[in-house]
Amino acid sequence: MSEIKPEKEFKPYIAAGERVAEFTVKSILLGAIFGVIFGAATVYLALKAGLTVSASIPIAVLAISIGRKFFKTTILENNIIQTTGSAGESIAAGVVFTLPGFLFLSAGSNGEGFFSYWPIFILAALGGILGTLMMIPLRKSLIVDEHGTLPYPEGTACASVLIAGEKGGDFAKTAYQGLGFAFAYAILQKVFHVIAESPAWVTEQSNRYFPSATVNGEITPEYMGVGYIIGPKIAGVLVAGGVLAWLGLIPLLATLVPQETTALQLIKLGYLKDLATPGGAGSWDPITKTFADYAGALYRAYIRQIGAGAVAAGGFITLIKTIPTIISSFKSSLGSIKAGGDVAVVKRTEDDLSFKVVIFGSLALVALMMILPQVPGDTFFNKFIIGVLVIVFGFFFVTVSSRIVGLIGSSSNPISGMTIATLMATCLVFISVGWTGKLFEPMALVVGSMICIAAANAGGTSQDLKTGYIVGATPRYQQLALFIGAIVSAVVIGLTLSILDRPTAAMQAQGIMHAIGTDAYPAPQGTLMATLIKGLLSFNLDWQFVLVGVFLSITMELCGVKSLSFAVGAYLPLSTTLPIFAGGAIKGIVDMKNKKKGVVEDDELGKGSLFSTGLVAGGALMGVIYAFFMAFETTSVPVGKLNIEPSLVGSLGEGGYQLMGFIFFVIMGIALYRIGISKNKE
């Protein structure tokens, strides 16, 4: 009886007997628009930094300010807006973490051929639908029956935003201030180049004691915003991995490894054509047999493989630590399915889509994967096996994902660990039936990518359903909105990836055909997935480097540090993690200041957090817009001619120009700090 007690006692904001406008055309359209915006922004941010932040809170704020003010939307319509819109962010994260891996599969696997608009759209849409489908039978057991034990922090906070919006306040104003600030900053940085992109300090390779050590940072508003949102602890662990790599391992390797040996390793990895060809990672000079940027060459040759091993181990360790949660979730899910057909008359707030939708929807997904030519596989049998693996792993990891985000929130959901586990299991199945070699690599990636997308969307879906449960929404309408959001966001996600992947003229001159995978958009998780698949199916993984990363993660766990965050930091450039750490440090200072005054800022609804979501959204959106214009630059849209960096460098010097950029970044940090210590007006 104790399990159903919370359901009997809980009273939603809008009672089950009340009839309030909810699933309307305006709510779906507004939600779809926000899904497009935040889906595109998430693609950009995930490609750049390998990180995402939750879109539910900012979309809820926008729903209150725009929907309620201009379209007279109700609280339940606002809930549908944020439910539809948030699907874009979660699906985009799953797509970007995996599908760019098609570009990094073995030559001859035809992986690159699948990295085009229609395959991306189909896999994103099917993965998103799968995540929502599998959550239909789980809603009652996880959201309702365990309302008192699974807090679903983002979902609860989002409900608070929607309810607060009914009462007024300045939540939206703060988020818009952040967005406007970031947009103006990004225009100065990306269009006019008044602010340096990445100020750096690098020691000479000839330095006897500390060769090729690097300290640099991409001083963008989105990185500072991400750092503030994730907080000082995670940001500190993240930058620690980068500090070890760029100030420890790279100077050590620069001392021990001859530059020609590094060049040979880059040739093996495909970053350099041959020893006689200049350019490539680190700018190889065949005449002097040296690199212009030896730190960058070492990073590509060795550090990324060490980081890949660390991320893989960190993901597995995280997954192992959640095995008790996995087992209990799996048992609860089976129980809820068995009881799925026992409902006779249901209240509005308990009206889910029928369990038949799950059964027939799953069968339809398998059938579509078998007949669509955009899905890898030479025979119907191959595609049938892929479809079955997707459904089986999908149900399991959707359950896991929902349970985990209920406890620790979507931001800490170990999606990469689940994807790695899926890829390992899939490759073992392939090997057991003799499917080895490069031709089966795209098939393995499809299984891993769809599970990643489904698990990511399931985490977001769970938070949305929690919000709906608190405010008194109709589950059926939320589930329909999530299906719509998945399809609409898949349209823009594929388009955004295609645009960002277009190489600039400078890249084309160097023979680079894809911008994704370069320093502009490193796509760290996609590279990792491809590395694992290639190594597993060809029995040719660079284990000596990977194992260094594995034991790096094990060492961190033994020290009581969450290894996954540290591993991601070791894999990413320090230029990414250092500005994120700056945002985290500001959050730590704000918390200390507020604690002294006896004030505790809400992690989701405090002014600093809301301003930071605006920084992330504004900076990422400007990045997408700028990338769009650069990809289609013509004489009528001369974006490159607006660059005034050469004249600034001429008058200030290179050092002065970079110092000026750093000062702008400090000013942004001061603004964030001052807003963080102020209070929302109720």
Walkthrough of the structure:
This protein has helices at 5-9, 25-49, 56-70, 75-98, 117-135, 139-144, 153-167, 171-191, 221-256, 259-269, 294-321, 323-338, 355-371, 380-408, 415-432, 441-471, 475-500, 505-509, 524-538, 543-558, 563-571, 574-596, 607-631, 645-676; strands at 200-202, 214-216, 284-285, 290-291. With 682 residues, it is mainly α. It has a two-stranded antiparallel ribbon with strand order 1-2. A two-stranded antiparallel ribbon has the order 3-4. A hairpin with a 4-residue loop joins strand 3 (284-285) and strand 4. Helix 2 packs across helix 17 and helix 5 packs antiparallel against helix 13. It is globular, with a radius of gyration of 25 Å.
Defining key terms:
24 helices, mainly alpha, two-stranded antiparallel ribbon, 68% helix
Main beta sheet, described?
2 strands, antiparallel
Helical run tally: 24
Strand content: under 5%
User: Distance N terminus to C terminus?
Assistant: 39 Å
Supply the helix-strand structural class: mainly alpha
Question: Which SSEs are present, and which pair or pack?
Answer:
Layout: H1 5-9, H2 25-49, H3 56-70, H4 75-98, H5 117-135, H6 139-144, H7 153-167, H8 171-191, E1 200-202, E2 214-216, H9 221-256, H10 259-269, E3 284-285, E4 290-291, H11 294-321, H12 323-338, H13 355-371, H14 380-408, H15 415-432, H16 441-471, H17 475-500, H18 505-509, H19 524-538, H20 543-558, H21 563-571, H22 574-596, H23 607-631, H24 645-676
Antiparallel strand pairs: 1-2, 3-4
Helix pairs in contact: 2-4, 2-17, 2-23, 3-4, 3-7, 3-8, 4-5, 4-16, 4-17, 5-13, 5-14, 5-16, 5-17, 7-16, 8-23, 9-11, 9-21, 9-22, 9-23, 10-11, 11-15, 11-19, 11-20, 11-21, 12-14, 13-14, 14-15, 14-16, 15-16, 15-19, 16-17, 16-19, 20-21, 22-24, 23-24
